[in-house]
Design brief:
The protein is an all-alpha fold. The protein contains 16 helices and no strands. The chain is flat, with a radius of gyration of 28 Å. The N terminus is likely disordered. Keywords: Cell membrane, Membrane, Transmembrane, Transmembrane helix, Transport. Pfam families: BPD_transp_1. Belongs to the binding-protein-dependent transport system permease family.
Protein backbone atom coordinates (compact mmCIF):
# COMPACT_ATOMS: atom_id res chain seq x y z
CA UNK A 1 0.00 0.00 0.00
CA UNK A 2 2.79 2.37 0.92
CA UNK A 3 4.62 1.49 -2.28
CA UNK A 4 1.54 2.32 -4.34
CA UNK A 5 1.22 5.67 -2.59
CA UNK A 6 4.89 6.40 -3.24
CA UNK A 7 4.51 5.51 -6.90
CA UNK A 8 1.45 7.75 -7.26
CA UNK A 9 3.29 10.64 -5.56
CA UNK A 10 6.25 10.22 -7.84
CA UNK A 11 3.94 10.14 -10.85
CA UNK A 12 2.16 13.32 -9.80
CA UNK A 13 5.50 14.99 -9.14
CA UNK A 14 6.75 13.96 -12.57
CA UNK A 15 3.58 15.29 -14.22
CA UNK A 16 3.89 18.61 -12.37
CA UNK A 17 7.54 18.97 -13.37
CA UNK A 18 6.67 18.11 -16.99
CA UNK A 19 3.87 20.67 -16.92
CA UNK A 20 6.20 23.31 -15.51
CA UNK A 21 8.74 22.43 -18.18
CA UNK A 22 6.15 22.82 -20.91
CA UNK A 23 5.02 26.14 -19.49
CA UNK A 24 8.63 27.32 -19.28
CA UNK A 25 9.25 26.26 -22.87
CA UNK A 26 6.08 28.09 -23.95
CA UNK A 27 7.21 31.22 -22.08
CA UNK A 28 10.63 31.04 -23.71
CA UNK A 29 9.06 30.59 -27.15
CA UNK A 30 6.86 33.61 -26.56
CA UNK A 31 9.89 35.67 -25.54
CA UNK A 32 12.09 34.51 -28.42
CA UNK A 33 12.69 37.61 -30.58
CA UNK A 34 15.49 39.12 -32.66
CA UNK A 35 16.70 40.89 -29.52
CA UNK A 36 16.55 38.98 -26.25
CA UNK A 37 15.02 40.65 -23.17
CA UNK A 38 18.45 40.67 -21.53
CA UNK A 39 20.00 42.55 -24.45
CA UNK A 40 17.04 44.89 -24.65
CA UNK A 41 17.43 45.71 -20.96
CA UNK A 42 20.91 47.10 -21.54
CA UNK A 43 21.48 50.68 -22.59
CA UNK A 44 23.17 49.72 -25.87
CA UNK A 45 20.31 47.32 -26.70
CA UNK A 46 17.68 50.00 -26.09
CA UNK A 47 19.52 52.55 -28.22
CA UNK A 48 19.99 50.04 -31.03
CA UNK A 49 16.33 49.00 -30.88
CA UNK A 50 14.91 52.52 -31.04
CA UNK A 51 17.33 53.62 -33.79
CA UNK A 52 16.36 50.67 -35.98
CA UNK A 53 12.68 51.21 -35.20
CA UNK A 54 12.88 54.91 -36.12
CA UNK A 55 14.73 54.19 -39.37
CA UNK A 56 12.21 51.54 -40.41
CA UNK A 57 9.27 53.83 -39.62
CA UNK A 58 10.78 56.73 -41.55
CA UNK A 59 11.60 54.49 -44.51
CA UNK A 60 8.12 53.01 -44.74
CA UNK A 61 6.52 56.42 -44.26
CA UNK A 62 8.53 57.88 -47.14
CA UNK A 63 7.85 54.89 -49.40
CA UNK A 64 4.09 54.74 -48.81
CA UNK A 65 3.13 58.32 -48.00
CA UNK A 66 5.73 60.09 -50.16
CA UNK A 67 3.82 59.72 -53.45
CA UNK A 68 0.59 60.86 -51.80
CA UNK A 69 2.30 63.91 -50.35
CA UNK A 70 3.86 64.70 -53.73
CA UNK A 71 0.49 64.43 -55.43
CA UNK A 72 -1.35 66.62 -52.92
CA UNK A 73 1.31 69.34 -52.89
CA UNK A 74 1.68 69.18 -56.68
CA UNK A 75 -1.94 70.23 -57.03
CA UNK A 76 -1.20 73.31 -54.92
CA UNK A 77 1.72 74.55 -57.03
CA UNK A 78 1.86 76.67 -60.15
CA UNK A 79 2.56 75.06 -63.51
CA UNK A 80 6.12 76.43 -63.61
CA UNK A 81 6.87 75.11 -60.13
CA UNK A 82 5.52 71.64 -60.97
CA UNK A 83 7.72 71.19 -64.06
CA UNK A 84 10.87 72.84 -62.73
CA UNK A 85 13.99 70.81 -62.00
CA UNK A 86 15.01 70.13 -59.30
CA UNK A 87 11.49 69.98 -57.82
CA UNK A 88 10.55 71.81 -54.66
CA UNK A 89 9.55 69.89 -51.55
CA UNK A 90 7.07 72.55 -50.45
CA UNK A 91 4.92 74.88 -52.59
CA UNK A 92 6.29 78.40 -52.68
CA UNK A 93 2.69 79.65 -52.73
CA UNK A 94 -0.52 77.68 -52.22
CA UNK A 95 -3.04 77.73 -55.07
CA UNK A 96 -6.22 75.96 -53.93
CA UNK A 97 -8.02 77.17 -57.05
CA UNK A 98 -6.30 74.39 -58.97
CA UNK A 99 -8.62 71.85 -57.34
CA UNK A 100 -11.68 73.93 -58.16
CA UNK A 101 -10.52 74.31 -61.76
CA UNK A 102 -9.91 70.56 -62.03
CA UNK A 103 -13.42 69.84 -60.73
CA UNK A 104 -15.11 72.14 -63.26
CA UNK A 105 -12.88 71.85 -66.34
CA UNK A 106 -12.57 68.07 -66.27
CA UNK A 107 -16.20 67.56 -65.20
CA UNK A 108 -15.20 65.32 -62.31
CA UNK A 109 -18.73 65.22 -60.89
CA UNK A 110 -20.00 63.32 -63.96
CA UNK A 111 -16.99 61.02 -63.98
CA UNK A 112 -17.43 60.31 -60.27
CA UNK A 113 -21.10 59.49 -60.75
CA UNK A 114 -20.33 57.13 -63.64
CA UNK A 115 -17.65 55.35 -61.64
CA UNK A 116 -19.86 54.96 -58.58
CA UNK A 117 -22.67 53.65 -60.78
CA UNK A 118 -20.45 51.00 -62.33
CA UNK A 119 -18.77 50.12 -59.02
CA UNK A 120 -21.94 49.57 -57.00
CA UNK A 121 -23.58 47.71 -59.88
CA UNK A 122 -20.60 45.36 -59.98
CA UNK A 123 -20.84 45.04 -56.19
CA UNK A 124 -24.50 43.99 -56.37
CA UNK A 125 -23.84 41.32 -59.00
CA UNK A 126 -20.81 39.98 -57.14
CA UNK A 127 -22.69 39.69 -53.86
CA UNK A 128 -25.52 37.79 -55.56
CA UNK A 129 -23.62 35.39 -57.80
CA UNK A 130 -20.34 34.96 -55.91
CA UNK A 131 -22.11 34.27 -52.62
CA UNK A 132 -24.36 31.74 -54.32
CA UNK A 133 -21.38 30.01 -55.96
CA UNK A 134 -19.33 29.92 -52.76
CA UNK A 135 -22.28 28.67 -50.68
CA UNK A 136 -23.04 25.86 -53.11
CA UNK A 137 -19.38 24.77 -53.28
CA UNK A 138 -18.99 24.89 -49.50
CA UNK A 139 -22.25 23.53 -48.08
CA UNK A 140 -24.34 22.02 -50.88
CA UNK A 141 -21.41 19.94 -52.22
CA UNK A 142 -22.43 19.60 -55.89
CA UNK A 143 -21.11 16.88 -58.18
CA UNK A 144 -17.61 17.74 -59.44
CA UNK A 145 -17.55 20.66 -57.00
CA UNK A 146 -13.85 20.26 -56.28
CA UNK A 147 -13.09 20.14 -60.00
CA UNK A 148 -15.07 23.31 -60.59
CA UNK A 149 -13.30 25.05 -57.71
CA UNK A 150 -9.92 23.95 -59.03
CA UNK A 151 -10.74 25.29 -62.49
CA UNK A 152 -11.81 28.60 -60.93
CA UNK A 153 -8.59 28.90 -58.95
CA UNK A 154 -6.57 28.00 -62.04
CA UNK A 155 -7.84 31.19 -63.69
CA UNK A 156 -5.94 33.18 -61.05
CA UNK A 157 -2.71 31.99 -62.66
CA UNK A 158 -3.65 33.59 -66.00
CA UNK A 159 -2.57 37.25 -66.44
CA UNK A 160 -5.51 39.59 -66.85
CA UNK A 161 -4.07 41.12 -70.04
CA UNK A 162 -4.18 37.73 -71.77
CA UNK A 163 -7.97 37.66 -71.38
CA UNK A 164 -8.58 41.18 -72.72
CA UNK A 165 -8.90 40.19 -76.38
CA UNK A 166 -11.29 37.22 -75.93
CA UNK A 167 -13.38 39.21 -73.45
CA UNK A 168 -13.59 42.16 -75.81
CA UNK A 169 -14.65 39.92 -78.70
CA UNK A 170 -17.30 38.43 -76.45
CA UNK A 171 -18.59 41.88 -75.50
CA UNK A 172 -18.77 42.89 -79.16
CA UNK A 173 -21.06 39.95 -79.92
CA UNK A 174 -22.39 38.10 -76.89
CA UNK A 175 -22.99 34.43 -77.75
CA UNK A 176 -26.62 33.23 -77.82
CA UNK A 177 -28.01 36.72 -77.14
CA UNK A 178 -26.26 38.34 -80.13
CA UNK A 179 -25.92 41.69 -78.36
CA UNK A 180 -23.23 44.36 -78.52
CA UNK A 181 -22.43 45.57 -74.98
CA UNK A 182 -19.96 48.32 -75.89
CA UNK A 183 -20.87 51.62 -74.16
CA UNK A 184 -23.13 49.65 -71.84
CA UNK A 185 -22.67 49.17 -68.07
CA UNK A 186 -23.10 45.42 -68.65
CA UNK A 187 -19.63 45.44 -70.22
CA UNK A 188 -18.28 46.36 -66.75
CA UNK A 189 -20.68 44.38 -64.60
CA UNK A 190 -20.63 40.96 -66.26
CA UNK A 191 -16.83 40.41 -66.36
CA UNK A 192 -16.53 41.50 -62.73
CA UNK A 193 -18.87 38.71 -61.59
CA UNK A 194 -16.38 36.00 -62.56
CA UNK A 195 -14.03 36.73 -59.65
CA UNK A 196 -12.41 33.50 -58.50
CA UNK A 197 -10.54 35.18 -55.65
CA UNK A 198 -13.72 36.50 -54.02
CA UNK A 199 -15.44 33.14 -54.45
CA UNK A 200 -12.49 31.45 -52.75
CA UNK A 201 -12.57 33.92 -49.84
CA UNK A 202 -16.29 33.39 -49.37
CA UNK A 203 -15.98 29.62 -49.57
CA UNK A 204 -13.21 29.56 -46.95
CA UNK A 205 -15.39 31.56 -44.59
CA UNK A 206 -18.45 29.39 -45.24
CA UNK A 207 -16.31 26.29 -44.53
CA UNK A 208 -15.64 27.62 -41.01
CA UNK A 209 -19.36 27.88 -40.19
CA UNK A 210 -20.33 24.89 -37.99
CA UNK A 211 -22.45 22.35 -39.81
CA UNK A 212 -24.61 21.92 -36.70
CA UNK A 213 -26.21 25.32 -37.36
CA UNK A 214 -27.24 24.29 -40.86
CA UNK A 215 -28.44 20.88 -39.64
CA UNK A 216 -30.59 22.55 -36.99
CA UNK A 217 -32.09 24.86 -39.61
CA UNK A 218 -32.81 21.89 -41.89
CA UNK A 219 -34.53 20.05 -39.02
CA UNK A 220 -36.75 23.12 -38.50
CA UNK A 221 -37.80 22.87 -42.16
CA UNK A 222 -35.66 25.68 -43.61
CA UNK A 223 -34.70 25.32 -47.25
CA UNK A 224 -31.07 25.86 -48.35
CA UNK A 225 -32.02 29.32 -49.64
CA UNK A 226 -33.70 30.22 -46.36
CA UNK A 227 -30.68 28.92 -44.44
CA UNK A 228 -28.39 31.08 -46.54
CA UNK A 229 -30.52 34.18 -46.04
CA UNK A 230 -31.33 33.78 -42.34
CA UNK A 231 -28.25 32.08 -40.87
CA UNK A 232 -25.21 32.18 -43.14
CA UNK A 233 -25.38 35.78 -44.38
CA UNK A 234 -25.93 37.44 -40.95
CA UNK A 235 -22.78 35.81 -39.52
CA UNK A 236 -20.79 36.46 -42.72
CA UNK A 237 -20.76 40.24 -42.48
CA UNK A 238 -16.95 40.54 -42.08
CA UNK A 239 -16.15 38.65 -45.27
CA UNK A 240 -19.02 40.30 -47.14
CA UNK A 241 -17.52 43.65 -46.20
CA UNK A 242 -14.13 42.61 -47.56
CA UNK A 243 -15.64 41.37 -50.82
CA UNK A 244 -17.63 44.60 -51.14
CA UNK A 245 -14.53 46.73 -50.71
CA UNK A 246 -12.59 44.63 -53.22
CA UNK A 247 -15.44 44.90 -55.74
CA UNK A 248 -15.71 48.69 -55.48
CA UNK A 249 -11.95 49.30 -55.52
CA UNK A 250 -11.48 46.86 -58.42
CA UNK A 251 -13.83 48.84 -60.67
CA UNK A 252 -12.53 52.15 -59.35
CA UNK A 253 -8.89 51.52 -60.24
CA UNK A 254 -9.47 49.66 -63.53
CA UNK A 255 -8.29 51.51 -66.61
CA UNK A 256 -7.68 49.31 -69.67
CA UNK A 257 -11.04 47.53 -69.78
CA UNK A 258 -13.23 50.66 -69.36
CA UNK A 259 -11.12 52.45 -71.97
CA UNK A 260 -11.86 49.68 -74.49
CA UNK A 261 -15.54 49.15 -73.74
CA UNK A 262 -16.65 52.73 -72.93
CA UNK A 263 -15.44 54.99 -75.76
CA UNK A 264 -18.35 57.42 -75.27
CA UNK A 265 -17.01 60.42 -73.24
CA UNK A 266 -20.33 60.76 -71.40
CA UNK A 267 -20.08 57.19 -70.08
CA UNK A 268 -16.42 56.97 -69.17
CA UNK A 269 -15.07 56.21 -65.71
CA UNK A 270 -12.91 58.53 -63.64
CA UNK A 271 -9.54 57.13 -64.71
CA UNK A 272 -10.40 57.01 -68.40
CA UNK A 273 -11.98 60.48 -68.36
CA UNK A 274 -8.94 62.06 -66.71
CA UNK A 275 -6.64 60.31 -69.18
CA UNK A 276 -8.63 61.49 -72.19
CA UNK A 277 -8.65 65.11 -70.96
CA UNK A 278 -5.06 65.15 -69.70
CA UNK A 279 -3.57 66.70 -72.84
CA UNK A 280 -5.77 69.80 -72.64
CA UNK A 281 -5.09 70.92 -69.06
CA UNK A 282 -1.97 72.15 -67.22
CA UNK A 283 0.09 69.71 -65.20
CA UNK A 284 -0.88 71.18 -61.82
CA UNK A 285 -4.60 70.93 -62.65
CA UNK A 286 -4.10 67.34 -63.80
CA UNK A 287 -2.36 66.45 -60.53
CA UNK A 288 -5.21 68.09 -58.60
CA UNK A 289 -7.71 65.96 -60.53
CA UNK A 290 -5.73 62.81 -59.70
CA UNK A 291 -5.74 63.79 -56.03
CA UNK A 292 -9.52 64.19 -56.05
CA UNK A 293 -9.89 60.82 -57.78
CA UNK A 294 -7.80 59.15 -55.05
CA UNK A 295 -9.74 60.52 -52.09
CA UNK A 296 -12.76 58.12 -52.17
CA UNK A 297 -10.70 54.92 -52.13
CA UNK A 298 -8.44 56.28 -49.38
CA UNK A 299 -11.48 57.13 -47.27
CA UNK A 300 -12.92 53.65 -47.84
CA UNK A 301 -9.72 52.07 -46.61
CA UNK A 302 -9.33 54.34 -43.58
CA UNK A 303 -12.93 53.75 -42.51
CA UNK A 304 -13.08 50.01 -43.13
CA UNK A 305 -9.49 48.92 -42.52
CA UNK A 306 -10.50 46.96 -39.40
CA UNK A 307 -13.17 45.14 -41.40
CA UNK A 308 -10.67 44.36 -44.15
CA UNK A 309 -8.17 42.77 -41.76
CA UNK A 310 -10.79 40.85 -39.76
CA UNK A 311 -12.45 39.58 -42.92
CA UNK A 312 -9.21 38.41 -44.48
CA UNK A 313 -8.26 36.40 -41.39
CA UNK A 314 -11.77 35.10 -40.68
CA UNK A 315 -12.16 31.44 -41.50
CA UNK A 316 -8.43 30.91 -41.83
CA UNK A 317 -8.01 29.17 -38.45
CA UNK A 318 -10.13 26.50 -36.84
CA UNK A 319 -10.17 25.25 -33.31
Amino acid sequence: MASNTLVSRRGSTARKSARRGNEGAADRSRQRTLISPAQLGRRRGKVFYWVVFALVMVLFTVVFLGPLYWMVTGGLKTTQEVVQSPPTAFPSSIHTENYKQAWTVMDLSRLLFNTLYYAFGALAFQLIFDVAAAYSLSKLRPVFGKVILGMMLATLMIPATVLVVPQYLTVLDVPVFQRNLVNSPWAIWLPSVTNAFNIFLLKRFFDSIPGELLDAAAMDGASPLRTLRSIVLPISRPILGVVSIFAVVGVWKDFLWPMLTLPDPNKQTLNVGIYSLASGVPENVLIAALTIASIPTLLIFLIFQRNIMSGLTAGGLKG
